[in-house]
Amino acid sequence: MDVESLENIGINVARLLCAGDIKTVAQKFGYALSYNRDIASAIGEDLSRELKKVGSSALNAAGRPLAISVRYFDSNESNLFALIEVRIQTSDFASILVELIVSTKERDTYVTLEDISAIGTFNEICGQPDN
User: Fold this and answer.
1) Of the candidates 52, 37, 27, 5, which has an alpha carbon nearest to the alpha carbon of residue 113?
2) Per the structure, how many domains does the chain have?
3) What is the pLDDT of residue 124?
4) Residues 6+ away with beta carbon under 8 Å from 52
5) Domain range for residue 88?
């Protein structure tokens, strides 16, 4: 898969999350950190927790990621192929990082939601102290 195809996957995940369609994200991508929880519930709980960390209540409804990066892994025995990192703006101008892992097995390619994490508040990102 080329960079553009992987970036489009990241854009799709951002749009789904921003639209609140966590069920579709869960069905299409699973969640590596669900830890025996219902996958959609785990994504929703973890997203809510990370939003609270940056003082936000929701992702930006526009659904456009602030940045997407794609990095390829060197050949490995775990069949890890690439990492897609999607930075999504929150409604309060903070950022959430969504990480997707792309793996391969024979001719099949799999994309899994790996992690959701808070990056920082608007002021932290811009280098300004919070009041």
Assistant:
1) 27
2) 1
3) 57
4) none
5) 3-126
